[in-house]
Amino acid sequence: MENGVSSFNKFIHDLSVDSDSSSEDYSSAEEDSDGLCPASPLSQSSRVSRANSFRKNSGYWAGYTTLLLSWILFPVRFLLGIPLFLCRLFYIRGSSTSLRGSHMPSRLHSIRRGHNPKDHVIHHTTDRRRGVIEDLHLAIEIFIEAIFDFFHKAAHFLLSPSEVLRVLYRWFSGQRSGHEDTNGVPDTSVPTATLGEDDPTPTERKTTFHQSLNTDARTCQDVITELGYPYEAIRVITSDGYVLLLERIPRRDSRKALYLQHGILDSSMGWVSNGIVGSPAFAAYDQGFDVFLGNFRGLVSREHVDKNISSRKYWRYSINEHGMEDIPAMIEKIHQVKTAELKISQPELEGEMSDDQPYKLCAISHSLGGAAMLMYVITRRIEEKPHRLARLILLSPAGFHHDSTLAFTAMEYLLLLLAPILGPIIPGLYIPTRFFRMLVNKLARDFHNYPAVGGLVQTLMSYVVGGDSSNWVGVLGLPHYNMNDMPGLSFYVAHHLAQMKHAKKFIMYDYGSASANMEAYGSPEPLDLGEYYGLIDIPVDLVAGRKDNVIRHSMVKVHYRLMKDAGVDVSYKEYGYAHLDFTFSHHEELLAYVMSRLLLVEPSQKQAFNQKGSRSKRKGEVNHVIRRTMLK
C-alpha cells in the first residue's frame, strides 16, 4: 500500500491511462505503404508506449511482489492492526465514519463510475470499456481486499461487543424499512458532477446493469443522435412475417433519397461507424439526401409477427429472401413514406406524383447486400413491378466466388456435403446466450487494449480468409455485437453462397431436387441471374478491392463483363482495399468517388423504362420465358 492506494490499483490506473497510446490500428496495409503521409498521433503515441514498455513491465512485477509480501506478513499486520482499531474505536470513530459515508464512496463504485459507455463513436481509442483480463484483475483485487476487510472487522467486533449490537440493530431496522419502501432491487446511485457546470455539486445518477458490467450496447440510433443528427426508426413487416428495422436520418422535404444495405454478419452500424467525417450515411445527409439504413432479417432476437416462431423456422431462408422479401418491403416503405411527406411539404408536385415518383432513390450496397440488390432489380423487372431505383453503387458485391482461397474452397465442399445433416441441426450461426455474447464483447476490448493479443487474432483471422487484411479486430469491437443482440447468419445463406461458388454462376437457391425447384421456379434448375443482366435498366457502379480476398476483384470484374456485354450502363473502379475497408475504414478517395456518383443527374424512371422498352425483340422474349418459369 502506498498513500492509501494498493500497488494493484496503481497498476490498473496506469494500464487504463496508457491504453490509448498502446492501441494499434489493425487496418489494411494501405496506410503502411503511404510513406509520404505524416505520422498520425496514434502512431506517435504507440512509439512512446513501446519505449515505456520496460518501465511498465517492471511496475507489474513490483505490484505482484508487494501483493505476495502482504500475504506473508499478514499475521504481523493483523497484530499491529489491533491497537489501531482500539484508537479508532475510542478517539476517531465518529469522524472516520462520517468521512467514509460522505466523501469516500466504495472503490467498487469508483471503478464503475469511471466509465461511461457513451464516451465517443464506436471503437476508437476513447472507448473505455474493460476487457476480460481487466475484469479478472479487478475481481482478484476486490476479493483480496474483501478478505482483509473481513478479518479487520471480525477483530473489531470481538473487541467491541457494543458495536456489534448497534450494527445488528441498524441492520434489522434497515431491513424492515427497506421492505416497506422498495419493490425488487433498486438501481445503484452514484454521485457525479459534470465538468463546466455552474454548480459542481455532485448529483445522483442511476447506474444501469450494462454500465455495471462495463459493456458497450449502443445502437445505430445512439451513434446518430450522439453526433447531433436526426433519427427515425421505421418497422417494416415482410410478406412472410419478418419484422425488419429500417433506420433513417431524415430530410423530409428532400427529393433525393439514399438507401444503404449492409452485407453478411453486419448491420446498419457499418454505415455510421467512422463518425461524421468518414461515414457514407453522414456524408450523403450533408449533401442533401434523405438517408435510409436497411437491416436484413437474421438477428438473435428473432423478430417476427409470430412471437412463438421456432429457431428452425426463423432461420429457414436464403439470399432469395433477402432479395425478394426484405429489400422489396423496405423500398416500398421508403416510397410510401417519401410520397406522403412530399405531398404535404410540396403540394405543387401532386400532378407529377400521378405519373412518376417525385424523388430519386439511389442505393449503396456492400458484399452480400450487393448480390441481394441485383437479385431484387432483376426479379422486379421480371414481375413487371417498379424497382424505384435511379442508380446502384455496389461495393465488392457477392454473386461470383469461384476464384477464392483454399479456406473458402474447403468450406464450400463441407457445406455442400453436410447440408442435409447440418441444416436441421444448426439452422442459424450465432452466439446463443447473453453470457457468451458479453464475453465476446469484452474479449474484443482485450484485443484492443493488448496489442500483442490483438495482433495475433488479426493474423489468425487474416489467414482464415486467405490473407485479407481487413480490420477484423476493430469490427469485433463494434457495439452491434453486444450481449442483448447481434447479427446472425442463416445456414442456408452460407449454403447458397457455396452453391454459387460450386456452380461458378450467380444462381438463385437450389432446393436440391428437380421437383422442389419446379415448385419454386417453374423449372428444374434455379435461375442464373447473370444471364439476365440485360434487364437492368439503371446505371450501375461497381467498386472492387485489390487486397480483398473475401470477394476478389476478379470476381467483381465478372459482374462488369456480363453487364457490359448486356448493354448495361456500368462503370468499374478499383482501389487497394481489403473487404471490410469499404465500410469500416475511413478512405477519403472512396467516399469522394461514391458521392460523385450519387450526385450525377439521372433520367426519371419513366424515361428509363421507355429506353429499355425499345430494346431488341429477343429481350422481350427472354422476359416472357423468365416470367413463365419464375412466377407461380
Q: Tally the helices: what do you get? A: 28
Largest sheet: 8 strands, mixed
Shape: globular
Low-confidence stretches: 1-13, 15-59, 90-126, 181-211, 603-632
The count of β-strands is: 12
Instruction: Please bin the fraction of helical residues.
Output: 40-55%
- As laid out across the biggest beta sheet, the strand order is 3-4-6-5-7-8-11-12
Distance from first to last alpha carbon: 78 Å
Radius of gyration: 30 Å
Strand content: 5-15%
The pLDDT mean sits at 74
Structural class, judged by helices and strands? alpha/beta
Q: What's the quick description here?
A:
This protein is α/β, with parallel strands linked by helices.
Features:
single chain, 28 helices, eight-stranded mixed sheet, two-stranded antiparallel ribbon, globular, alpha/beta, disordered N terminus, 12 strands, disordered C terminus, 632 residues
Helices, strands, pairings?
Elements: H1 7-22, H2 30-33, H3 41-51, H4 53-72, H5 74-90, H6 93-102, H7 107-113, H8 132-159, H9 161-181, E1 188-192, E2 203-207, H10 209-213, H11 220-226, E3 232-237, E4 243-249, E5 256-261, H12 275-278, H13 280-286, E6 290-294, H14 311-314, H15 319-345, H16 350-355, E7 360-366, H17 368-382, E8 391-395, H18 406-425, E9 428-429, H19 434-449, H20 451-464, H21 472-476, E10 489-490, H22 491-503, H23 514-521, E11 540-545, H24 553-565, E12 570-575, H25 581-584, H26 588-598, H27 605-613, H28 617-630
Parallel strand pairs: 5-6, 5-7, 7-8, 8-11, 11-12
Antiparallel strand pairs: 1-2, 3-4, 4-6, 9-10
Helix pairs in contact: 1-3, 1-4, 5-8, 15-17, 18-22, 19-20
